[in-house]
Amino acid sequence: MGFTPWSRPCAGVVIENLGDFRVGSAPHGEVTEPCPTRSGEVPGREAARRYGGRDPVRPRVDEVRIKGLGVIDEAVLKLSSGLTVVTGETGAGKTMVVTGLGLLFGGRADPARVRPGADRASVEGTLVVESGGRVAQQVEDLGGTVEDGELIISRTVSTEGRSRAWLGGRSVPVGTLTYLAEDLVAVHGQMDQQRLLQPGRQRAALDRYAGEELVKPLRAYTQAYRRHKEVSDVLDELTTRAREREQEADRLRFGLEEIEKVDPKPGEEVELKQEEERLAHADSLKSAAVSAHTALLGDPMASAQGAQDAISLLGHARSVVDAVRGFDTALAGIGDRLAEAGYLVSDVATELAAYAESVDSDPARLAAVQERRALVTGLLRKYGEDTAAVLAWAANAAARVSELEGDDDRIAELTREREELTARLTELAGDLTRIRTSAAERFGAAVTAELAALAMPHARVVVVVSPSGQFGTEGADDIELRMMSHPGAPALPLNKGASGGELSRVMLAIEVVFAGADPVPTFVFDEVDAGVGGKAAVEIGRRLARLARTAQVIVVTHLPQVAAFADQHLVVEKARDGSVVRSGVTALDHESRARELSRMLAGLEDSELGRAHAEELLSIAAADKAAD
């Protein structure tokens, strides 16, 4: 667990997991963007220009309230300036103090850390800031308030994994706390030593040390890299699928040629079907029309006597009715309708005669229609349910062919652009390498100087910048921290050349270097002295005390040599039921400090030898601090 602003992630993303957490850093290779405030500015160091640099009154954490987190039921920590150490028996909840601070400043939330029996874990912190200062203005831009120089930040994590954050009384995304933390705190947990072995963390450390000189070139490189990747992806897709695309174009061209030869017209399939039916049954149609005509008008060659055609019968009926229609108006109406029927039958007979005259058997035309219909039907089977669909397919196919035929031009254009981008990336990557190489020498020397003050006078840290052989998201450099344990020894990677205790001191040295180049007002360390003892532990305590002259430093430690240098000593005590209650976090006076250091030294609070050794440590630490 632990976090430190060695690189800057995207804000605006609510972080929902507690456990390993890192405020102010993104996974190696992830390119992210900051989240603006309501005024369009970015919280964190990038807003420093607007707010005029750091506040004259350095912010610090004044009080932290933790509830329902791990073994902690409820605890209150009143923190002071200078060096505060937190000690206590194993399992008392010391590490949960760091976990709580991590949550307070945007760390990932793990619902498994919620205390059994509780529905949520909560952390509330009170920070002292300058009213009207830069931090206060950032908070106000985010909608929060700072009252009487106090800023309240709170965070909750439920057992379901839901996480909420508040800043100055306003609900905000957890990522907002992350960015605000860049100017307020750097936290290191027990796993940070191992993270320091990761190439991405080492690159981030060097880049942070390089500072503003690297920011603009890296931003320009990142933009060019993104475009280079986009162009390369499209170009690869076009070239790898060139054969498939050519086959597709050939298939479409064949279909277009087939349709063009037939040249179908909208609705033609219906017209052809109707014409084929008429030609195929011409004799039957003509015979039917003639027979119907005869039935209506009679056979002109037959005798008129005894005619049974429709016209004659209607005429006779009309004559009979007309003879007596004057006697009844109802019958007169029927007579009129008989007259109308006669006219209608006469018209139909005329049309039948014309139809019979127009219908002739034409085998040649029938064959032509059948052939044409077969061609059109063939298109329908392949390209659409009717001629309208076939024509639509042809239009789409023509557009697709134009697109496919334009791939060659596009490939050539993209190839030229990729070559230009490659040249640009090479130039920008060279700029990054030059800046990193220069910074690496200074960074290595600065860390080496700090190691000398941490009981490693003969150790030397070198930062190796070597070509990776390919473009990456952060450039074309491999960054590796190496250490020589003594003069003449080879410079080995940290995972091979440093013990656990040495690695702890290297990490502390790096943070101290950062504190000088890009300081934050509060540092939190969880057992930064892991794997260290004896003189080295004393030197770590001394260095932390010196760091605390200009910053608030909070350290969870198991070493009495480190605890002896504290300006404030808090002890976390475990209650009988295994929980930590409010009264379980106690600020110790001198007498109590001696008892606690005796416990840490000898395992017994009342050991005379342990007490004497504790008093000696306290005296040495006090004298050392007074002499500086």
Automatic annotation (TrEMBL):
InterPro entries, alphabetized: DNA_recomb/repair_RecN (IPR004604), P-loop_NTPase (IPR027417), RecF/RecN/SMC_N (IPR003395)
Residue numbers spanned by region Disordered: 25-56
Keywords: ATP-binding, Coiled coil, DNA damage, DNA repair, Nucleotide-binding
Protein's UniProt keywords contain GTP-binding: no
One of the GO BP terms on file: SOS response
Keyword DNA damage attributed: yes
RecF/RecN/SMC N-terminal domain location: 65-578
Domain of life of the native organism: Bacteria
Molecular functions per Gene Ontology: ATP binding
Coiled-coil parts of chain: 404-431
GO cellular component: bacterial nucleoid
Record's compositionally biased regions (Basic and acidic residues): 43-56
Family according to the record: Belongs to the RecN family.
Function noted in UniProt: May be involved in recombinational repair of damaged DNA.
Name of the protein this chain belongs to: DNA repair protein RecN
Organism: Sphaerisporangium album
